[in-house]
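Chapter summary example.
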Amino acid sequence: MSQSQVQHMAANIITLTRIVLAFVVIFLLQMGFYYRVMGVLLIILVIYLDSLDGYVARRLGVASDFGALFDITGDRIVEHVFWIFFSSVGLISVWVPIIFISRSFLVDTLRSVAYAKEGRTPFGEKTLMRSPFTRFLTASPFSRTVYALGKVVAFVLLGFILVFQEGFAVMQQWLSPERFGDLFLVTEIVVWVVVAMNLIRGIPVLVDGRYYLFDRQFPKELKDEG
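The structure predicted for these 226 residues follows.
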C-alpha cells in the first residue's frame, strides 16, 4: 500500500476508531466502579477524535466529499449510541434520543439528496447552505466547537452519575446526596440545552434545502433509476 493510500485512509480510520470506542464506552459503563471511571475518560477521547479526523484530513491534504460524509456518519452513530444508552438506564427522557434520531434522518436524507443531485456537501465550498447566517450556524468552527463541547459535558456528566451510583460508598465523601441531586438537575439542564442546540443547528438545513424537499422531478427520477 502506497503512502498516498495510507494518508487517504488515516482520517477515515480515526472515524472508524471512535465508532468502535463508543461501543467500548457502553460496555465499560455497565461494569464496576473503576471500569465506569475509565468509560467516562474514554468519552472525552471519543469526542476529541471527532475533531481530530477532520484536522488530519486537512493537514494531509486528503479531505474528500466521502470523508466529510463518513465523518458525519460517525458523529451520528456515536451520539445516538450514547443517547439511547443513557435513556435505557433511566438517566434521560426517551424523548431525547427520539428527537436526535428524527432530526438526523430528516437532515441527513436532505443532505444525501443534495449531494446526489448537485454534489452539494454539508460543509466546505460546496455546502448546500445558502446564506452566511446558516453557514455560520451549522458549519462554522465556532458553532461546531460549542456544540461538541456541549455534548462532551452532557455525556461526561451522565457518565459521572453512573460512576457515583456504582461507587456511592467511595464517592460520598466528595459528593453528598444533596450535592448529587444538584448534579442531576444540572445534568438534565445541560442535556436539554444540547437538544435545543441540535434542533437550532438542524432547522437551517431544512430551510435552505427546502428546494430539494419540494422538488417533484428528482424523486421521480430516483425511482426510475431504481
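To summarize the output: The chain has one domain: 3-225.
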